[in-house]
UniProtKB/TrEMBL annotation:
Organism lineage string: Bacteria, Bacillati, Actinomycetota, Actinomycetes, Propionibacteriales
EC number: 2.7.7.105
SUPFAM superfamilies named in the record: Nucleotide-diphospho-sugar transferases (SSF53448)
NCBIfam families: F420_cofC
Alphabetical UniProt keywords: GTP-binding, Nucleotide-binding, Nucleotidyltransferase, Transferase
The protein's name in its UniProt record: Phosphoenolpyruvate guanylyltransferase
GO biological process terms on file: F420-0 metabolic process
Catalytic activity from the UniProt record: phosphoenolpyruvate + GTP + H(+) = enolpyruvoyl-2-diphospho-5'-guanosine + diphosphate
Binding residues annotated for phosphoenolpyruvate, in chain numbering: T143, G159, S162
Function comment: Guanylyltransferase that catalyzes the activation of phosphoenolpyruvate (PEP) as enolpyruvoyl-2-diphospho-5'-guanosine, via the condensation of PEP with GTP. It is involved in the biosynthesis of coenzyme F420, a hydride carrier cofactor.
Superkingdom field: Bacteria
InterPro entries: CofC (IPR002835), Nucleotide-diphossugar_trans (IPR029044)
Length: 223
């Protein structure tokens, strides 16, 4: 593992304002959806920063509470100046990353990976040998990670059917087993239940404890 001790990637993580984020969780978690979305982003950011291949994490957001939370775990915040959508936010983050760390590759990482494991992320980054590489989500249609080598345009195409869109753009899918935590993005209550089974980070675990406590009229339940 000695060859993995030199950081070579800068990550851009886009986070919507949590007042509107994760709308598909609203039915199951109507009172806690914004807090869950914020917890996902914090756990994703903290896990990413724990990878020895990650030099820095830039969180692209205009949410002041998210900004404070991710700064507390060691990320830098980049305002979402375009405020024009996910791909535009990622392009802005990639531009900042390339300007500040020109020798690094740039990675776009989903903000809703609460079970993310630093070791699994490290394995993925080590496997990103193509000019552009991506990770397909567990459902098989979306993208959780897009990596561009130094000097290569990120060209993000996130959205419905992004796995096919990234493949069509020339990006190469990372074919690894044992990386479910990198592929388990959370959009629905079923996704969150699976993430909890994998083992979520402390911010999400704390929120799930509060959610379960509210549901049963008690506090401090472990998820």
């Amino acid at each position: 593992m000695a060859d993995l001790q030199v950081a070579s990637w800068t990550l851009a993580i886009p986070v919507k304002r949590t007042a509107i984020a994760k709308s598909r969780l609203a039915a199951a978690y109507p009172q806690h959806r914004p807090e869950l979305a914020r917890a996902f982003a914090v756990d994703t950011t903290a896990a990413a920063l724990a990878s020895p291949l990650v030099r820095a994490v830039l969180v692209v957001t205009d949410d002041p509470v998210v900004a404070a939370d991710v700064t507390a775990v060691g990320a830098r915040v980049v305002p979402d100046l375009p405020s024009a959508g996910l791909n535009e936010a990622l392009l802005h983050g990639a531009e900042v990353a390339a300007a500040e760390f020109p020798d690094d590759g740039v990675v776009a990482l989903s903000a809703d990976l609460p079970a993310l494991r630093p070791g699994e992320l490290t394995a993925v980054l080590a496997a990103c040998s193509a000019p552009r590489s991506f990770v397909i989500d567990l459902p098989g249609t979306g993208t959780t990670l897009l990596a561009a080598a130094p000097g290569t345009a990120l060209d993000p195409r996130f959205g419905v059917g992004s796995a096919l869109a990234h493949q069509a753009s020339g990006a190469v899918a990372v074919e690894l087993t044992g990386i479910d935590s990198v592929r388990r993005d959370v959009d629905t209550a079923a996704d969150l239940a699976h993430a909890v089974q994998l083992g979520v980070g402390p911010a999400t675990a704390d929120m799930m404890s509060l959610v379960l406590g509210a549901a049963t009229g008690t506090e401090g339940l472990a998820c």
